[in-house]
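LOG
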Amino acid sequence: MIMHLPLPAPLGALNDLPCIIQAAILIAVTHFAVTVGKPLTALISLLAEFIFLSPPKIDVPLALSESSDDGVKGEPMSNPQLLIPSESDKVQCWDPSTLQHLGTAPAMGKEQVEALCAKAAKAQKSWSTTTYTQRRMVLRTIQKYILEHQEGICRVCARDSGKPKVDALLGEVMTTCEKIRCINVNGEEWLQKSYRPVGPMMMHKTAYVEYVPLGVLGVIAPWNYPFHNMLNHVISGLFSGNAVVSKVSEHTTWSASYFTRIVKAALEVHGHDSDVVQTLTGFGECGAALVNCSLVDKIIFTGSPAVGRKVMSGCAPNLKPCILELGGKDPMVFCDDVKIKDVVPWAMRGCFQNSGQNCCGVERLFVYESIQSKFLSAIVPKVKALRQGVPNAVCGNDGNVDCGAMIMPAQLDIIEALVNDAVEKGAKLHCGGKRNSSLKGQFFEPTVLSGLTSDMRISKEEVFGPVMCVITVPNDSDDECIRLVNACDFGLGSSVYSASQERGMRIGNAIKSGMFTVNDFGVNYLIQSLPFGGVKESGFGRFAGPEGLRACCLERSIVKDRIWGIRTAIPSQIDYPIEPTQGLPFTMSLMKLFYSESLLGKLMGIIGLIKNM
């Protein structure tokens, strides 16, 4: 005999299952609800949506160059850097690891930018009326496509940015999927009305903050993670009901067409206007036009402090809000009580992930004096053993490349100048330190420097390359470590490793940064419920977490009557014209009633009100 439990309506379709299975489902759901802190009814409704509404499969036609590793036969670019200023009417695209020409894209000007922003603004009107279920379904459709085409997305990322496919999977695909998962599970809750206490004087009122779409979000994305950096703000922008217009970097423009088609296909398969998402290609003029466009309600910029200041200046005349994520020189601290074998892998991943082209990558490695010699003896052979080369399979290196190319050609000059300056001022070069002459592309050898001092440029300026900078913490002093770490204009992320978590937390709490991790690295960004951003030269504002999602919205304060028929009235004593003998005494008595901390004071307030009625 099959028994049944009184399942809630969203799970009514499970009534045909045996009681024991129903009970197991409810126990699992209840446990998960308690774990994530969600109301059971809300969680059951969300789970039912995921169980009974399956996202469709979308087809995104690929160009030959996108679908295979040997589909591009373009001639190598002799000097890609020279093409940027000279070809002002189009963007030249090339593979930084082979210098192979990939194609061109239009260099959009003001008129084109404003036309696409107008399309986005028009489409946003209908998109803002969609339900959270509809928005989740679009994101789930994107997620489904990503999971079914992981290798292809990694291949395209590798060709356009020169990174190994594993780095693309970790930094591009995994982070994007986690962003979608987190927003789908938590986004609706984060954007619910936030009810606020009203105080005794307004006890007859209900007050809350609501989060409504801003309209059109303008995104200026960097070049280090072309897939994730574009999808990141599309995900949060669409979920919060906005249109998103993204200006992609001129250095990673080629892949943007494919990534945009994925999003548009997901919108179209569900009957939505795909104009709600637009992609801009071009140079500085294109970015400036986006910032200045009157149809754009907010700018989200990721890049250098120098360009960030220009973006902020462009927003200023129209008082347009902006979020600036401006990179950093993140510290990683190894205290004297760590085990060398345990921390070496973290130093390697922190410094050489994506060839060091990470805004929250490790740029300063603080090693306590008593363990530095052992650390260098362990780390230098590991760095020398890194395999550098062309990531895609066409060159026969698939899976055999640890360190890829530099995306921006000018970055090679910057890294070389910083390393040379450090060596000239006394730093010790253990390996690397120059361009990789055995490869044709934009490669800089994995490098290790020690003995760095504050007068060296590399101690203060962002490297954004495969360079491990080891700084000695003298006398194993925690206080001196904190001083050295904070002697920097940047403040994005930070991490401290110690056998004592209490000690690690104590050091970390004294570091001036937007993010901190103890005995781990980079996980802040994989916990998408946490806001991402920094302080000082690393910028301001946040994306990710409820703070980032709400930053896509207008926060409106709402007050309404709590009970029908009971409204605020202006007493006759303070109505215009104010009663000359009663107005001030009446108001002072009112203040005593509500704000005096003693019963006698409140009683005197009541008496005063009665006297002046």
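LOG (cont.) second protein
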Amino acid sequence: MDKFPNPLAELVWRTRYRHAPPGAEGETGPADTQARVARALARGEKDTAGWRRRFAGILADYRFLPGGRILAAAGIGRRPATLLNCFVMGPVRDDPAALFRALAEGARTLRLGGGVGWDFSSLAPRGTPLPGGGLAPGPVACLDLWDAACRVVTAGSVRGGAMMGSLSVAHPDILDFIAAKARAAVLPRFNLSVQLPDAFLAAVAADARWPLGQPESHPAAQLPARMLWNRMLQSMIDWAEPGVLFTDTLNRENNLWWREQLSTTNPCGEAPLPAYGACDLGSINLAALVRQPFTPGAHIDTAELEQVAAVAVRLLDNVLDRTRFPLARQRHEALATRRIGLGVTGLGDALAMLGLRYDSDAGRTAAAGILEQVKLAAYQASCSIAADKGTFAAFDAGRYLSGRFTARLPTGLRREIGRQGIRNSHLLAVAPTGSVSLLAGNVSPGIEPIPALRQRRKLHDTGSVHELEVADRAWSLYRETGAGTGAGAFVEAADVSPEDQLAMLAVLQPHVDGAISKTVLLPADTSVERLGALLERAHHDGLKGFAAYRPGTGRGGVIGPACALDEHGRAQCDPS
């Protein structure tokens, strides 16, 4: 059996990723799981054996961590499951038959293992008379119905179900939506986000009134924009909900700006997607690529970083051809654009191993350089695959290269895209990597700071809860080396100011064509004014969304050594 980094890693593997078919011995360790994944995703390649070795090579030592659905389901045979972590569903209409068709599509997607995101802005306000008779239930009532359906269809799953619900700030029911989770244990399967256009931020700055209602509504009700703003901020402070989506930024920075309108994301926020779009995710473990850690010569192996990124792009592209799609519409959309989301995890650990504090200028500069390398390697790899296998179906060179993100790519790379095309419309997204970061030995998740040097983690299995104490991976390695210097680079999440967390996001987002899942941890005494300034800065700096957590909310306990981010990217604590 493989040697596990710690007992928690073994438990995560056994409960989430190990394949053990009935009547067979099953996989005996992560190496078996990695071999299964590599074998499954190399099928269809001309050089099947060669790509199987390359895929297995980047999976070894947890250098590349595919999304959890890929690890759990690739190559397992006929068992119904999708390899894609998440989807955004189609529009929801008030007609009862259409409403329940949408619910059925979501239920089918959830049952096959995908989390889902919904934009409920198309629903009429609560109490609106419907053409066929009756009154509209409104978006908040639909949240309750969807949450109950998710609980039913994912019963017995160790992963449960996760959903994102978003609503336009111009919807007449926006105040009810903001307050929808203002009680403990309400809508537990939903994260909520308010869609904020630039015009709303301008109305807040001008202390103007803000119109509510659909474009055809006349006259539209109006509320003071700052009142709406403050109500939303107070709910974020009190309940860690809702988050926000800067919708104009989402669409300005969209590589497919000419063919789709983005209004919502997957449950964790790292993938803004059109109707029926899908997440195809994986993360490079930066902590596994640091050489000579905790010494003056510590550095990221840049050649290996680029090689892992290039092979990971091909692996994720192959997922789209090997996965099962819950719906035909999802297959059509995925193959038209071939979106993938290559990200990173272990950034906090990697910076500590390099002797750089997460909240320092040097740490941010190093992190931005790493993400830029990943971006360039990923785009170059996608060009190479296009030369071999063809571009994504919706590729239009002129329009694609006139996008804001692609316009910032180096001239030589842009020429190559124009000459031979590109395989994937989008290549980058930074996920929260909850379970897979534990599998890799409890590396710091995503781009988060180290949650805690030591913490108690609760792992939910079917019908039971396991609780273990575990050390951060970089901290464990530091103590094993017996190094006498370098401890000053370790900084826990609770000690990184929200402004410094936001500054890290700001230097990384320009290198990510998707989005970044990051929960900004707030001090216990955070005021509405301070949180408002953070959101205004996030919008100014070009971020695509914002989520926050403050200790003492109804969603957790006191920030301390027992705290960590949960599997959906939200900060959660063990109050005991």
